[in-house]
Structures are given as structure tokens and as C-alpha cells.
Amino acid sequence: MKSSLGSRVKVKLFAGFINNPDMKREMFTSDKWHMAQIAWKSQDSGLEVISFQNKEYVGKYLDSLFLSLTELRDIEDKIKKQLFFHCPKIKQFPLKFYVFPQVFVS
Predict the structure, then answer these.
(1) Residue 1: what pLDDT?
(2) Are 47 and 59 in contact (CB under 8 A)?
(3) Among 19, 27, 36, 75, which residue's Cβ finds the most Cβ atoms within 10 Å?
(4) Closest-CA residue to 100 (of 6, 18, 8)
(5) Are 30 and 82 in contact (CB under 8 A)?
(6) With 0-12 CB in 10 A as exposed, 13-18 as middle and 19+ as buried, what is 27?
(7) Burial 55-94 (b: 16+ CB within 10 A, else e)
(8) How many domains does the chain have?
(9) How far apart, in whole angstroms, are the C-alpha atoms of residue 104 and residue 93?
(10) What confidence score (pLDDT) does residue 2 get?
(11) Which helix (H) or strand (E) holds 73?
């Protein structure tokens, strides 16, 4: 059986913020954050914490590879609102929005 590499490769965009030590501490001590993580994992939605190029990010994988700047800004706002709802003290930390591709080979 011969399968082409193209059928085994999947590219996804991830959008989110660097999970700095202050954010990690707030998320670790937030009961709302822990409850949301349990609920999101069972529904396959919500925010995730991932590692990419030796840094940890909190955000989400996007459904599309083709997004306008307006759509990306909306996604940034939604992620921030989720973070702020579950960890209100995060509002005081500077947040820089990142979008990057990740390649998955099965």
C-alpha cells in the first residue's frame, strides 16, 4: 500500500497568546479556568494550551486557513473574552496576539 504524503499532512492555524509565567499562575489558581478546561475537553471546543518553538501559548486552532484581518481581530477578541472571563486578573498583563501554522503528519 502506497499513500501519498499529501494525504497524510494536515496544516492548521493556531491563534492565541504567549502563556507567560503570570498568566500561568492565574490560570493555575482559577477554579473557573479548571472547570472550563474539563468542559471544553469533553466538547472539543474552547481554549487550549500548546507548545510551539519552545514557548507555551493559550488559544485555539482555527477552522479555516483563509481568514481576513477583520476575522482575525474578531477571533482575538473572542479569545481575550474567554481568558478574561475565566481569569479576570489576566487583564492587567500585556497580551500580544499570535497566529501561526502547524503541520501535522499522520
Answers:
(1) 46
(2) yes
(3) 27
(4) 18
(5) no
(6) buried
(7) eebbbbebeeeebeeeeeeebbeebeebbeebbeebeeee
(8) 1
(9) 32
(10) 54
(11) helix 69-86
Q: Which domain holds residue 97?
A: 5-105
Q: How far is CA 24 from the centre of its chain?
A: 14
- Grid look-up 479555516 returns 64
Could you tell me the three cell numbers for 13?
Answer: 492555524
Provide the residue count of the chain: 106
> What is the grid cell recorded at 61?
486552532
pLDDT at 22: 86
| Cβ 27 vs Cβ 68: under 8 Å | no
